[in-house]
Design goal:
The protein has strands at about 5, 10, 15-25, 45-55, 55-60, 70-80, 85-90, 95-105. It is mostly beta strands.
Amino acid sequence: MARALINVPAKAKRGDIIEIKALISHPMETGYRTGPDGALVPRDIINRFICTYNGEEIFSADLFPAIAANPFLSFTTTATESGRIAFRWIDDRGQAYLETAEIAVE
């Protein structure tokens, strides 16, 4: 199962610009490499990443075979209210993953 190390400030002041970081553990197999038996290893990459803040999308990315294994994503948003920041991603096998973090806004 793919996991992510996520970094979201635990607290922020309303209106602050906050940096959000995610390091996703995933092998990102391109489909161009051959295995020990000489056959192509099936492609398995994260193809869609979405981050929401209290249910509202604040960042999304489409990923392609040139992305590194264990991709790192960093972006900013404005702290508007306390709540949940959710990170979702889907790979070529159709598996969907979810990680969340809470932020308290003063």
